[in-house]
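User: I need a structural model of Phosphoglycerate mutase family protein from Nocardioides pinisoli for a docking pre-check later this week. Nothing fancy, just the predicted structure tokens so I can convert them on my end. Input:
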Amino acid sequence: MTLHLVRHGPSAQAPGTPAAEWDLDPAGYDAVWALRSSGRLPARAAWFTSPEPKAVQTAQLLTDAQVGVLPDLREHERTGEWIEDFPAAVRRAFDRPDEPAVDGWEPLAACRDRVVPAVRRVLEVHGDDDVVLVGHGTAWTLVVADLTGQPPDLDRWAALAMPDLITVDV
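Assistant: Understood. Predicted structure tokens for Phosphoglycerate mutase family protein:
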């Protein structure tokens, strides 16, 4: 079985609004459709998505299949405040997962403790099927680390496009 972790397409950023409320940027639809037509996603799979609008909208563009919405797949919770050096803030979150890297951010350990068990439950139920999960780069970095027993690959996180695909053989 293969787990396909899709990072959502480009966000329509709305300063002052939490990232969890951002929609998919219509200018990014072509990139999502390109992923759909790339042949990199399975023809048959169990599909689930984070409840965040940008993830739900990405999933809707990627498949005609039924897509379940799983609240625990939501991203590392952050405020909508602009962070000058966002990659450095995320790296701090990974360096000190039990502490908020920025005031108002969820400690990364809390995200891990929510997302990883949710993914494991999906894998238990759909153990014979390919699974596609549509969500977020930070959350998927935590999931891949857990499933592979490797440290989080922050270089891979930094290189993720919107959308992008990570596959893990489970």
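Before docking, keep this in mind: The longest strand covers residues 2-7.
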